[in-house]
Amino acid sequence: MTMVRGMSNPFQPDYRISDAERRQAMEDLGAHFAAGRLDMSTYEQRIDQVASATMRSEISYLFDDLPAAGLVAPTLASTSIAGEPTYTASEIDRVRREGQRTRAGILGVTTVGCFIALATGGPSVGVVMFLIPLVWLLLYVMKVGPDSWYMPSRAKLERERLRQVRMLEAQHTQAIRLAHAEQLAHQKALRQQRQNELASTAMEFADEALKKLRRRR
Length: 217
Known about the structure:
- With 217 residues, this protein is an all-alpha fold.
- Helices cover 66% and strands 0% of the residues.
- It contains six helices and no strands.
- The chain is elongated and about 115 Å long.
- The chain crosses the membrane at residues 104-121, 127-146.
- It comes from Corynebacterium vitaeruminis DSM 20294.
- Keywords: Membrane, Transmembrane, Transmembrane helix.
């Protein structure tokens, strides 16, 4: 996070932070918590410190053992030296399986259709037994059909990559929301506890005052 990084610079004066800066610090802590860098107790402790902080220096050290924003963003694939995108084996296999399912579906539909036609008095058994192997040879040996059925295209790989990125972003956002909700619930419980303690202290003080007043009488 830009606001937090650089806070330990001795040439940069300290100043009072705003609500927006506290919120940004909480969101950054939530991102580190969602990534597994902070456990629940450490995360809650640091969130409480951010919530009660008034000066920039009070939250800067909370990020000293965490990587800077933008340096740890997860990537699904790298880029080659020549600028051409490269794809991982898992990405290629994932898209290739879609083409395999398409070919298997065509062969399955052909097989079922032939047996239905045979059962209803359609073509002879010889025709059926010839047609099914023929479709199998066309799809799996001669590789008839679009190239995407056999080798993933770059467009298809990019669409799959984009889908994976969006899924990871949704999971990350959900984790941050859950962490933020837990943090709000924790703060609410602390406020309620303090209110109960203050009310109990006030009641004890009032009882003590009444006892002293009665003794004087």
